[in-house]
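Lecture notes, unit on binding sites. The following record was shown on slide 14. It pairs a sequence with uridine-5'-diphosphate.
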Amino acid sequence: MKLSENAIKVLEKRYLEKNEDGNLIEDVEGMFKRVAKAIASADENYTDKAGIEKIEMEFYEMMANLEFLPNSPTLMNAGRPLGQLSACFVLPVEDTMEGIFESIKNAALIHKSGGGTGFSFSRLRPKGSAVNSTGGVASGPISFMKVFNAATEAVKQGGTRRGANMGILRVDHPDIMEFITCKKDNSEITNFNLSVGITEDFMKAVEYNLEYELIDPKTKKPVGKLNAKKVFDLIVEMAWKNGEPGIIFLDRLNRDNVTPKLGEIESTNPCGEQPLLPYEACNLGSINLYNMLNEEKDSLDFDKLAETVKKAVHFLDNVIEANKYPLAEIDKMTRGTRKIGLGVMGWADMLCALNISYNSQQAIELADKVMGFIQDNAQKASQELAEQKGAFPYYEESVFAKKGIKLRNATTTTIAPTGTLSLIAGVSSGIEPIFAISYIRNVMDNNELVEVNPVFKNAAVKGNFYSDELMKQIAKSGTVKHMEEIPKEVRDVFVTAHDVRPEWHVKMQAAFQRHTDNAVSKTVNLSHDATTDDVREVFTLAYRAQCKGVTIYRDGSRDLQVLNIGKVQ
Ligand code: UDP
């Protein structure tokens, strides 16, 4: 198994099983075996012992060869007492004291197990409205969000990962202005990503520079008006300042809600890629596209990809069975719709190996082809599972019933960020461009280590221009864009997130969205000197290109930045 030193370090610290003294009692191979066994056992009612062993072996090989990896909670918890395997949850927040604190308690239970939670605060009555039982006034959604934030801070996910939350407020909620600016000071509400829930009516009002109505969620009555363009400009300005809030297009999430009879989609998970109904959970998994190339690494092996999609859908469907859900309501909803989210990682590395620039029409066309292929095959696999094991229990309530398409899973595809998975697999994350061609990593004894993108290293060795000195030189800026000593064809292909103009980021996100049931996690990177007009342009492009939401990040706009070119820890 070819894992980087960095990957092994992360796995040892947080994923591998330890005894009471904190000593490791499994290695990486042991982890994949544990996971394969736990997930294959969900087939016990459908096959015999030999059948289970065969499935176990298939699952194990797919993970050990780094062809497919399930989301982190599955790797951490499968076959262990906690047994909570999903990364994504959405919880309702009702407009009552009991409802609010019930939701905080449930979020704490989910965070403890390594899952992330999304909430819409839109049902809460606005700040200053009456509270009947006390005669006092309500403190409003933003003040309650701070309580959710403090609870998350305290839980810290049992030492495995920190709690992550998504907080959403509808653009027509009376407290929207406070929401948009509430993370102006970046030390506040640190455990939340925030997105404004945008409606089509609002976007029309922006276009025609009109006012729109603010609705009190309690009385459902209009209580004021705002100029849509002004509100949009404020979102743009705040996002320009420090990347928040993002926006999500609520009507689009609901247009693609395949079980509208079960309720409305109000929120997504923390990174935005998984819209869910209240109390629904979803488990994700990602195919490593770089490892779907042929042996020569010069063309995509579509047969292997089809095979892997089929096995991955089987795997993720089994996760729903093997999962121990933290709440009875979640158990019911999640087993009822059986949503899974199969996605990809290593997309940019794959493009580089194929000599295709990320920011090119050819890459967009390939994105349509590859994700279209994955989507078709995932649906086919889910249909085959439905024939064998039955359609998802809420099938009759779904839009598929009318069409007569029996599926095992209400949704099959999602593009996750793959923050840790891509690190384990040693490839570029999700569908993002390469972040840096090489960078300096400080290792323990104050030594500096130059990490080089392995696909670039191959190209440099092949092209006869590899040298340690050159790699060090590249690490200073992360990019090879201006390095004349590197052949132009290579520079054109090895583009980094900051070399790619924002519109290409959006085009790529939109291409993947066209073939994804759920949503796409993507950050549109902007250079430090980008203007608010650039941000507005990105938001507008994303809206026109049918994205389900968009998040931007302007380089250097936050004091604390996870990845810093030139000085990665
Ligand atoms: N997530 C979380 N805490 C974290 C990272 C991720 O709760 O520290 C959840 C969140 O819902 C996110 C999802 O996991 O949207 C998928 O994130 P990612 O693909 O980066 O996770 P990985 O499986 O690679 O760890």
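Take-home: The radius of gyration is 23 Å.
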